[in-house]
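Structure (tokenized):
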């Protein structure tokens, strides 16, 4: 093999190794910015998208219905505490800020934030549905998977009662 071909081979190998390293670093950096979607029952039962329980400090999105009677607002700050539920459980959410105009009890929401201890989500953003027929796609898919029917069939989970 002549020296010119040898140099081309080394250059090609160097470019391929550099490209592979760059792609690996980009994918590793983006991995920490992915927000996985969970339902309250998946968090409580540990059956998430990767079959792992979300860990403290993990970014995630949680979707479901706002539990009636659970919205508590702090009179002195913009802090709001509420619970998101589905047919099999409820998760507490804390949000600091102004909630969307369409946010109300019994409506579908998706909260994006960070998992805290004791299954509490510290939300950085809360999205509310825009009319009576809309359910966020992730919530609709999760409801189908849980065999719970349409969002209008949800009832407040009460211990000892049978769920639809």
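Design, position by position:
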């Amino acid at each position: 093999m002549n020296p010119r071909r040898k140099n081309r081979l080394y250059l090609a190998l160097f470019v391929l190794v550099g490209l592979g390293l760059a792609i690996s670093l980009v994918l590793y950096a983006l991995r920490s910015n992915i927000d996985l979607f969970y339902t309250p029952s998946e968090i409580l039962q540990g059956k998430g998208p990767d079959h792992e329980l979300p860990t403290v400090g993990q970014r995630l999105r949680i979707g479901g219905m706002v539990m009636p009677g659970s919205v508590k607002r702090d009179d002195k700050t913009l802090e709001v505490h509420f619970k998101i539920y589905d047919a099999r459980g409820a998760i507490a959410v804390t949000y600091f800020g102004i909630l969307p105009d369409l946010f109300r009890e019994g409506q579908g929401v998706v909260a994006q934030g960070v998992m805290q201890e004791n299954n509490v989500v510290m939300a950085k953003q809360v999205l509310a549905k825009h009319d009576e027929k809309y359910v966020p796609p992730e919530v609709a898919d999760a409801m189908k998977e849980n065999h719970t029917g349409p969002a209008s069939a949800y009832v407040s989970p009460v211990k000892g009662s049978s769920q639809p």
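Reviewer-requested clarification: The longest helix spans residues 3-31. Helices lie at 3-31, 40-45, 137-145.
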